[in-house]
Amino acid sequence: MEIILATFSALFSVVNPFGAMPVFLTLTQDDTPSQRNQQALKACLYMVGILAIFFLAGQYVLNFFGIRIHDLRIAGGLMIMRAGFELLSPGGSKKKISPDVVEEGQQKEDISFTPLAMPMLSGPGAIAVSIGLFTTSLSYFDMVMILVGIILLAAVSYLILRSSFQLTRFMGKSGLAALSRIMGFIVLSIGVNFIVSALKALFFAE
After folding, report:
1. Which NCBIfam families does the annotation name (predicted)?
2. Which of 100, 103, 130, 174 is 20 to 30 A from 203 in CA distance terms?
């Protein structure tokens, strides 16, 4: 259970489904509630697939290119810190994808894979965290528990996106801005933790 909660907490702030709500509502404004829910469900299923694949196969990709896991954690930490800084700035959640991607999404009937699942939900930061979760000391049971944590994250993300219209009306712009800053601070802390843990492993390992 601890592994499931640790996986969920490590990924939730980086995935940040609350930050995806404004873009999700913009891209599905002409859809019926059932169509909107279907898009949210498919996006979250795609997210599970993307994060699970990078968790299971990411280490082998790194080995193929000769990249150490600590190198990835430093690079991923810098990317996560940048995302955190953007969330801390006014309107930061809107910067997660470019206006061109939003415009392209408005012309598509199915936005579940792009831009919703990637890069909104499972962007570079979430992928870096997923790869970083894998270590050679994990047992098969631990790996299953991490995958369960990813599935739990997708389920919560789906509920948030499904309720995005009601949440947006309830929280208002000021509430969403405050939530974005809270998420930004947590994401920034995760990025710092990634870098510090990698530097410790590189320079202070016995």
Report:
1. NAAT family transporter, PRK10995.1
2. 130
**What DSSP designation does 1 have?**
-
pLDDT value of residue 138: 87
Residue type, 44: C
Low-confidence ranges of the chain (pLDDT < 70): 90-107, 205-206
> Is there a contact between 75 and 128 (Cβ–Cβ < 8 Å)?
yes
Largest CA distance in the chain: 59
Question: With a threshold of 0.70, does the pTM exceed it?
Answer: yes
C-alpha to C-alpha distance for 111 and 36, rounded to whole angstroms: 10
Cα→Cα distances 88→158, 166, 180, 182, 184, Å: 24, 24, 7, 8, 5
Terminus-to-terminus CA distance in the chain, angstroms? 31
Q: Check residue 95 and give its pLDDT.
A: 46
Query: Distance between CA atoms of 176 and 167, rounded to whole angstroms?
Result: 9
